[in-house]
Amino acid sequence: MLFNRAWKGIGLMLVMLLCIQLLAGCLQTDKPKQESIEPKPSTEQLERVDLLNQTVDEMYKKVMQGDITGGRTVIQQVSDLVTTIRYEGLTTLEGLNALTEAVAQGKRLLNSTRYSSDEGVVAAAQIRLAADALSHPEQPMWLQYYKLLKEDLNGIEQAAKSEKLADFKKDVGSFERHISIIHPSLLISRDPTDVEKLDSLVTFVAGQIKTEQSPYQPIVNLLPAIHQIIDKLFLKKDTTAFLPVVDDKNPILWTFVMASVIMAALGFAGWRLSKKDNGMVLVRRKEER
Fold first, then answer.
1. Beta-carbon contacts of residue 181 (< 8 Å; ≥ 6 apart)
2. What Pfam families does its record include (predicted)?
3. Residues 160, 220: contact at Cβ < 8 Å?
4. DSSP assignments along 117-130, one per residue
5. Which of 5, 17, 31, 78 is buried most deeply by CB count within 10 Å?
6. d(CA 273, CA 10)
């Protein structure tokens, strides 16, 4: 049976019309997006944050010097200051919660009748770095922990290869401790979703080290993922997957370009079809082949 080239032409026309309809739909629905404008902190906000940072620094120094009574007095001032600041444009809700929780935990530890100097120092460091992250968003002090975390991870890997359990547990403990110190700052400065990914990895490592089975290989298998999320949080490497570059400012232009490419390809295919066998396509029955 012979099919006239008109049938093929009709098929191509239908496809082209479909592309045109899709293009029209894009033009109607793909309106320029209004860029969300995040509120910028006011001068008053910045002044309050600066005062908070100075007060926290005083508290931190007293705790580090062993002046717990003075630390208790100043951390109360810190707690009062935190409630007087508006945080719009400064951090996310998760960051605000992390700050207030760190301050509340610090107060409990410093006022505890069974005060632990180790826990007190960690709490003071958490609050110190968190306040600094608010007052110095472009270059916060917690970025200095990158080298420490990398050394922890390298130590974990080396201890796993040599199967030295004591060193392995020591390096894992050091890694967890360093993460806990900067955790409130991470939530203040970075995307909470990325921080949650890190939390999941750290939780797995902490759980694995407590199992009776050999903890080495499961944790070593996870190290590349931990390195990757650490690099992303510290802005050390481009962890974005390779994707086609799209101009978000001119989505309609890109729609036209893509539609033009599709229609040009279809047009070329139709031209080739019209030249082949004089536009006729011979379809043989199975028994004739």
1. 122, 125, 126, 129, 145
2. Spore_YpjB
3. yes
4. HHHHHHHHHHHHHH
5. 78
6. 12
Q: How is residue 274 written in tokens?
A: 């019209």
Residue written as token pair 């080298």:
147
Which two tokens mark 202?
């750290």
The pTM score is 0.69
CA 115 to CA 164: how far, in whole Å? 33
**Angle at the Cα of 70 (from 66 to 74), degrees rounded to 5?**
125
d(CA 201, CA 287): 64
Residue 179 corresponds to which amino acid? Answer: I
Angle between helices 68-82 and 117-135 (to 10 degrees): 40
Q: Give the per-residue pLDDT at 268.
A: 45
